[in-house]
Design goal:
Elements lengths: L10 E7 L9 E7 H5 L3 E7 L5 H13 L1 H6 L4 E6 L3 H11 L5 E4 L4 H6 L2 E3 L7 E3 L2 E6 L2 E7 L17 H10 L1
Parallel strand pairs: 3-4, 4-5
Antiparallel strand pairs: 1-2, 3-8, 6-7, 8-9
């Protein structure tokens, strides 16, 4: 696992609603860059193995969504959830989760996750390459603090969820 100081330069392929398109699928592709997402901002990022998976859906995303206003009160500009899933999956998961505050950022090719040093093989679960679970505070593109779950490894038989949770992040921000 590599330790890096700044978020990598990546272009994310996202889908955004565009009413000018009309029809039953009024969405268009929009590229979002790490520069656009992080420059001049303090951002909380958490990454997880996959949309619609148990821990991610019952605990990880919902608690960040629930504490969003607390993060804002501590000077956080946005909260971003990264997953190695495509834009369509992330959109449907966000709808199912009623995610209104956390920005669900698809890392469909795993490029951001790979450059972060967090890409792991989860072939043992039939997932292929996915993100290891972690969270971080990014301040103007620089990684201020990172919480990485223990046991980082390919085909890990467990999915630890001890330090990348929203409450650990909130405690850090309150103490910083």
């Amino acid at each position: 696992m590599a330790v890096i100081e700044t978020v990598p330069n990546v272009v994310f392929k996202t889908r955004v609603r565009d009413e000018s398109i009309g029809g039953p699928n009024p969405f268009r592709w929009q590229e979002r860059t790490t520069q656009e997402l992080f420059a001049g901002k303090r951002v909380v990022v958490f990454s997880l193995p996959g949309a619609f998976t148990p821990t991610c859906s019952t605990s990880h995303l919902p608690r960040y969504e629930e504490l969003y206003k607390d993060f804002q009160a501590l000077g956080v500009d946005s909260v971003i959830c990264v997953s190695v899933n495509d834009a369509f999956v992330m959109f449907q998961w966000g709808k199912q989760q009623n995610a209104e505050n956390v920005f669900l950022l698809p890392d469909g090719n795993g490029e951001f996750t790979r450059k972060m040093g967090m890409l792991v093989d989860k072939a043992n679960l039939g997932f292929g390459m996915r993100s290891w679970r972690y969270s971080m505070v990014v301040n103007d593109g620089k990684i201020e603090k990172m919480f990485v779950e223990p046991g980082f490894d390919d085909n890990c038989p467990t999915d630890p969820f001890e330090v990348s949770d929203a409450d650990t992040m909130l405690a850090y921000l309150k103490s910083a």
